[in-house]
Write a structure and sequence with these properties.
By secondary structure, this protein is of the alpha/beta class. Helices cover 45% and strands 19% of the residues. It folds into two domains: 76 residues, no CATH class; 186 residues, no CATH class.
C-alpha cells in the first residue's frame, strides 16, 4: 500500500508536489515528529562553531524546507524525462570527465549527500552517455528497495549493493565509470581513514581508496548546489590520479577537503540529520589490515 502511494505521488506534477506535498512532509517530519532535531542541532554546532545560535537556527530552518522538496523530487525521479534531467541539472565543466575518459582512464566520481544526489546520478549518466555503476545500500523493505532500485536504473545507471562493490569493480581490468557517495559515517568495526572535514577529524570508509588503487583509477569529486527550487548546478574537481603510493590517503583527504568547501558554501542543502560524527577517533579500535594498505 505504501509503495503504491509513493508511485501515485511520484506521478503528480512537480508544481503540485512542491506546493502541497513538500511543506506537508517537512511539517510532519520535523515539527510533529521532531525527526533528529538534536542531531541536526549538534551537528551544526560542531561543524560551524563560529556562527551564532540564531545563524545556525536559520540554516536548520532552511534545511528542513529543503528536505521536504528533496523528498518529492526523489519521488518524481521514477518518472522524469531525459529532457527534464538536462533542464534541471547542469554541469559547469564536463570536459574534465571527458578528458580522462578519452584517455582510457577508469573514472571514479565521488559525490556527497548534498542538494539532490538521486538527480545527480541520472544527470551524470545522461550528460556523458556512459554506463554509470553506482553504490547503493539495499533497503529492508523489499517493495521500496525494488522501487528505488528501478528508479536508479534509468538512463544507464547500474546500482551495485554496497557489500558487492569490491567484487564487482575492484578487480576489473576494463574501463569503468563508477559513482559513490562517501560522506556518511562508517561502522565503528570497519576499515576507515581519518581526515579533516568541516574542521573535525572525521572517519571515512576506506573502500573507495582500495578500489581506486587496485584499478589505478582517476578519482574526481562532483559537487552539486541548488540554484533555485528544482534546479541544480554541478562541477568537477580532480582529487587524484595514478600512480598511487602505498599507504597514501590523499584520495580521502582530498575528498574531505572538497566536501568541506561544498558544504560551507551552501550548508542548508547538506544532510545534517545524518549522524555523521557518531564516534571520534578515541573510540576507534579497528586496525587497518595489510590488504587495505596498498
Amino acid at each position: 500500500m505504501a509503495v503504491l502511494l509513493v508511485k501515485l505521488l511520484g506521478r503528480l506534477p512537480l508544481s503540485v508536489l512542491y506546493s502541497i506535498v513538500a511543506p506537508t512532509i517537512s511539517f510532519l517530519l520535523f515539527t510533529i515528529a521532531g525527526y533528529r532535531k538534536k542531531t541536526i542541532r549538534d551537528n551544526l554546532a560542531k561543524a560551524m562553531p563560529d556562527l551564532s545560535d540564531q545563524q545556525r537556527a536559520v540554516i536548520a530552518k532552511d534545511y528542513r524546507k529543503h528536505v521536504g522538496q528533496l523528498v518529492v523530487e526523489i519521488l518524481h525521479t521514477r518518472y522524469h524525462s531525459e529532457a527534464e534531467v538536462k533542464q534541471r541539472v547542469t554541469f559547469r565543466n564536463p570536459e574534465l570527465i571527458e578528458q580522462h575518459w578519452q584517455q582510457g582512464s577508469k573514472v571514479i566520481i565521488m559525490a556527497l549527500h548534498q542538494s539532490n544526489w538521486e538527480w545527480l546520478l541520472h544527470a551524470v549518466a545522461v550528460q556523458f552517455g556512459h554506463k554509470l555503476e553506482v553504490v547503493y545500500k539495499p533497503l529492508h523493505n523489499k517493495g521500496f528497495d525494488q522501487y528505488f532500485k528501478e528508479s536508479r536504473e534509468r538512463f544507464g545507471c547500474v546500482p551495485i549493493p554496497h557489500k558487492k562493490v569490491l567484487e564487482a569493480v575492484g578487480h576489473r581490468e576494463d574501463q569503468y565509470f563508477f559513482g559513490i557517495l562517501s560522506d556518511q559515517s562508517p561502522l565503528k568495526k570497519s576499515p576507515k581513514v581519518w581526515a579533516g572535514m568541516m574542521g573535525i577529524e572525521t572517519a571515512f570508509p576506506i573502500g573507495v581508496e582500495v578500489i581506486a588503487k587496485k584499478g589505478q583509477a582517476t578519482v574526481v569529486f562532483c559537487g552539486m548546489h541548488k540554484v533555485k527550487r528544482g534546479h541544480y548546478e554541478c562541477w568537477f574537481e580532480e582529487i587524484a590520479t595514478p600512480p598511487y603510493a602505498k599507504g597514501d590517503h590523499s584520495i580521502l583527504e582530498g575528498y574531505a577537503d572538497c566536501c568541506t568547501r561544498a558544504i560551507t558554501a551552501q550548508p542548508e542543502t547538506w544532510l545534517w540529520s545524518n549522524q555523521r560524527w557518531r564516534f571520534d577517533r578515541s573510540e576507534d579500535r579497528y586496525q587497518l589490515k595489510p590488504e587495505h594498505d596498498i
